[in-house]
Amino acid sequence: SVSGATVLVIDPDPSVLERVTEVLDRAGIPSVTTETMLAAIEVMRPRSGHVGAVLLGVDSGQRDLRAVVSRLHHADSTVPIVLMSDRLVQDDAPDESLPGVVGVVRKPIYPLALVEQVRHALR
Which of 32, 68, 101, 118 has its CA 20 to 30 A from that of 93? Predict the structure, then answer.
């Protein structure tokens, strides 16, 4: 894995951010959190090369997923994206329409699955 690579966690729900940070922290994976897309893009730009992976929280009602993923991918196309979703995983299976997406983790967050996906993305 990339040493010193930080995971950028994006979710509008502070309790999700807290839970994910706690899990990553215990696994020894540094993270930075943001509740908004705008803030996320700001974090990615100046830290070019610092953000090793993105964990993106997705709500079941989210209609603009493709646009959101595209903006992240555009900010830094080298950074892999893992979705955190309460939808059925097969509905969110990575495909060509979601550039940069390498995996999906189910919400509610299961620590082992989260850490496994993040480590895979950081490779």
Answer: 32
